[in-house]
Amino acid sequence: MSRKPSFANLRSPAPSPIAAPHSAAPDKDAGIARPPSREGRKQIAGFFTPDMSFAMHTLARRQGKSLQTLMAEAFNDVLRKYGESPMGE
pLDDT 10s digit of each residue in the chain, 89 long? Predict the structure, then answer.
């Protein structure tokens, strides 16, 4: 069985992360450098089949959107389905 192509090679290489000093008792968010695009946001993650991952990445590419944008759209659709207000991106 052949392996499906990876989308990892489609992105430009990320700069090497700078190692942050490790403290014994870290405060919440103390000393953590975050990109401005992540300020005020919380990560939501899940484990899906390779087929689902491939389908979502392919759809994102075809639509010219990011995977995060498609996920936000899907979450908003679920919220609407259950009578909740959509939260945006």
Answer: 556 666 655 555 555 566 555 555 445 656 678 888 888 888 989 999 999 999 999 999 999 999 999 999 999 999 999 999 888 66
Q: 71 near 82, Cβ under 8 Å?
A: no
Q: What b/e string do you get for 44-79 counting C-beta neighbours within 10 Å, with b at 16 or more?
A: eeeeeeeeeeeebbeebeeeeeeeeeebbeeebeee
DSSP 89: -
The ranges assigned to domains in the chain are: 47-83
Q: What is the 3-state secondary structure (H, E, C) of 15-81?
A: CCCCCCCCCCCCCCCCCCCCCHHHCCCCCCCCCCCHHHHHHHHHHHHHHCCCHHHHHHHHHHHHHHH
